[in-house]
Amino acid sequence: MTQQSPQDELIIFEDDHHDETPGNGALPWKMLVVDDEQQMHKATSFALQGFTFENKPLEIISAFSGSEARTILDNDDDIACILLDVVMETENAGLDLVGYIRDELKNNSVRIILRTGQPGYAPELEVISKYDINDYKAKSELTRTKLITALTSALRSYEQIKVMEAGQAGLEFIVQSSRELFQERSINKLAQDIIAPFAQLAYVSPNDVIVCGAHKSSPSSKAIVLASGSNLNIAKDSSISDLADNYKEVINNVFVEKQSNFTGSTLCLYADTPSGHKLAIASTHSTPLNFVTKKLLAVYGVQIAASLENTYLFEHINEIAYQDNLTSLKNRNGFLDTIQKSLDSGNRQCILLLIDIDNFQAVNDGLGHDIGNEVLKKVATLLQSTFSKALIGRASGDTFGVYLPSSTTEDQESAITNLYKAFEHTLNIGDNELPLSVTVGAACATESEDSANNLFKNAGIALKYAKSNTKGKHQFFDSAMDEQLKLRLNVIKELKGALENDEMVLFYQPQYCLKTNQYIGVEALIRWFKPDGTIISPMDFIPAAEDSGQIVHIGEWVLKTACAQQVEWLKQGLPPLRMAVNISMRQFKDPNFIDFVYETVKSTGIDPKYLELEVTESMVSEDAMVFIDQLSMLRMDGITVAIDDFGTGYSSLSYLQRLPVDRVKIDRSFIRRVETNAGDKTIVSLIVKMGHELNLQVIAEGVEDEEQTEVLLELGCDEVQGFYYAKPMHPDDVKDLLLSKS
Ligand code: C2E
Ligand code: MG
Ligand code: MG
Fold first, then answer.
1. Is the entire prediction scored with pTM above 0.85?
2. Which of 155, 231, 687, 714 shows its CA 20 to 30 Å from the CA of 103?
3. Residue 169 falls inside a structural domain
4. What b/e sequence results for 18-43 when a residue is b if at least 16 CB atoms lie within 10 Å of its CB, and e otherwise?
5. What mean pLDDT is predicted for residues 699-725?
């Protein structure tokens, strides 16, 4: 037994009763004394009278048996330390209780000091380490000082364990909440969602928390409020200069110092990202933060920074995905998205214009892509200044969209008038003064209309219709257009396999020379004989075949069949006839087109000088450069080129001299009234003169009677083609016709 000082009496001799409730406001340390001897309880209370650890008093709870202690422990997981008698109702009641605490309650934080009745009794070492027992003392050697020392050390280790547990729980909490933050797609939402976990970690009310953001490129004073708790009563996007002084000061400071500040009465967590986004989360608080909380907040700051970077990245990607880089307008997706939001908000009085620049390809080809881009940018600016209240987007290459929400019928009509007015002036691009014309498809939302896609589709149908029927003008969508489109889609479907099923046939319409009074050529014209006996005109299926790309395949068949027919007629004893074959733009754009023509000439054995390709005038003006190059290559081989439907397109007559062509075919529409309409006669006369000046042959198509022929003769037209001379006919009929004439 050790020597004892006067105050160091054995506590077992003390029997005064003392108040066990803690004396001050701070939550006390709870200690459970488990002993079957009443006196031990009294002695312990006496010995620990006035005991405090880290300014917190002690609350002693008493239990007189192992089983009573179990009940207490079942209901209170806040007990810091147990002073435990080993022998009570049974030999091992104390050690059994320890086993219960650690194994069943899984309470590993409570500290345990064993007291044994007999000096010299020591539980086995194995038990001490297995059950994490802090200390064991014989009752007889437990002096007041020793008890206090043992308790102090037990409480210290309890506190550390609790801190570690809090740290671990805090980390788990941070990981959990960060997982959610990482999913955030908008900065404002992220800022809002940061608040609750922050408040929980920092032991503050979420209503007092404010989140401010700034970018490193701008001064901190430019920081704005991204989200705030309800007590602060401050609007999102407010400047931080509008905040209360304590917030303003600490937020400004952390932005400048680039580190969190947990020292003052307003704490502030700072986070920044590699790309320079900064965030400050601040709140007033009453209790000072402990070491663990500060560490946890720091970890949370790192997680916020990662989420912040992620969210900004996402927002940026979103911007790119919804914005057109060249014009900075919304791109098709962004445009559609915004229209959808407007429709969703109940807006039905709206109009969508799809504006297509006419012959934009010619600008690109003729003046280069840089100028083309400049034109697009200028058009974007022009539209923005013309429609200051509208949503403007770039729908595709050279098609822009103007969406006017809440517009009356008058607004809608004047929108179109204003649009065309805006394009009356030439665009100033570098050294070029460019006249531009546009074709417009318009669609209005209906009461039942609820999809931007549908509105867009309708305007697109109207635009398509306008482009092929009224280029340079506008068209409002109506459902008949939709019907037409459906029919076209149907044709596309039916066209599949038509060639392979031998449903396509070539007819040939003879061409007559007015100078020699002889048939000198034929034009190959395709016919579609469907299995049900109907004959479909090329006017009804060629546009669909062009749209779907099937024209390439069909066109190859036409070229091969026509060339082979020309050679076949020669064999049958007919004079050599010029074979004119219609070629679509889509075929010209096919990279194998030229090769295919050469191969066909070779494989069929046609003399290339008898092969003529017909291209329409509108095609030429659409893509002049592609044409000029390709036509020149073909002509080098002796193949001739005719411009079909001349006079209906948009190219000026002077355009002709730049084109490598051999023949001009005056469109049927001028011939129809050439003998009665002075204007048409003048045009025909002009085309003939101009053609001759450029050394081109001139042929008139659609000649239906004697009178027309006479006028054409008078005007000096070289050749004619029309029902008056011969209809498109089966190759055998051509043979009969020509053999009968020779
Ligand atoms: P196009 O090349 O201008 O062909 C002349 C059209 O005028 C033919 O119509 C012909 O039958 C018609 N026609 C000829 N003489 C007269 C006349 O005196 N009066 C009237 N009212 N019409 C006359 P078709 O065969 O219906 O062809 C229409 C269009 O279809 C052609 O116009 C051409 O652009 C296109 N086409 C025809 N076959 C082919 C082809 O194999 N490939 C391509 N890409 N297009 C073709
Ligand atoms: Mg033709
Ligand atoms: Mg024609």
1. no
2. 155
3. no
4. eebebeeeeebbbbbbbbbeeebbbb
5. 97
| CA 525 to ligand 1 center in whole angstroms | 6
**Euclidean distance between CA atoms 386 and 415, whole angstroms:** 9
| Residue 543 CB less than 6 A away from ligand 1 | no
Same domain, residue pair 361 and 460: yes
User: Residue 150: how many CB atoms within 10 A of its CB?
Assistant: 20
- Give residue 100's Cα distance to chain centre: 59
- Is any ligand 1 atom within 6 A of the Cβ of residue 509? yes
Distance between CA atoms of 417 and 653, rounded to whole angstroms? 30
Residue 238 sits in the same domain as residue 345: no
Calpha distance 723→702 (Å, rounded): 7
Q: Are residues 455 and 588 in the same domain?
A: no
Paired sense of beta strands 29-34 and 56-63, if any: parallel
pLDDT above 90 as % of the chain: 48
Q: From the CA of 539, how far away is ligand 1's center (Å)?
A: 8
CA angle 693, 699, 702 (to 5 degrees): 145
Select from 671, 738, 740 the least CA-distant residue to 711.
671
Which region among 12-16, 142-146, 215-219, 324-328 has the lowest average model confidence (pLDDT)? Answer: 12-16
Q: Is ligand 1 within 6 A of the CB of residue 580?
A: no
Alpha-carbon separation of residue 234 from 117, 138, 144, 193 (angstroms): 67, 64, 58, 17
User: In ligand 1, which atom is closest to the CA atom of 537?
Assistant: 26
The answer to whether 143 and 11 are in contact (CB under 8 A) is yes
- CB of 702 shorter than 6 A to ligand 1: yes
CATH of the domain at 281: 3.30.450.40
d(CA 516, CA 534): 39
Dist CA 312 CA 279 (whole Å):
12
Closest ligand to C-alpha of residue 665 is 3
Look at residues 161, 194, 221 and tell me which one is the last residue of a structural domain: 161
Residue 288 is given by DSSP the state P
Distance 145 CA to ligand 2 centre (A): 117
Please provide residue 24's backbone torsions phi and psi, each rounded to the nearest 5 degrees.
-120, 180
Q: List CB-based neighbours of ion ligand 2 within 5 Å.
A: 582, 614, 644
Which residue, 261, 290, 322, sits at the end of a domain?
Answer: 322
Write down the residue that tokens 């000439």 correspond to.
601
DSSP-based three-state secondary structure for 391: strand
| pLDDT tens-digit readout, 151-186 | 998 999 898 888 888 877 877 888 777 777 777 778
195 alpha carbon – ligand 3 mean position (Å): 73
Q: How deeply is 345 buried, as exposed, middle or buried, from its count of CB atoms within 10 A (0-12, 13-18, 19+)?
A: exposed
| Nearest-angstrom CA–CA distance, 633 and 639 | 9
Q: Does residue 488 belong to any structural domain of this protein?
A: no
The finding on whether 539 has its CB within 6 A of some atom of ligand 1 is: yes
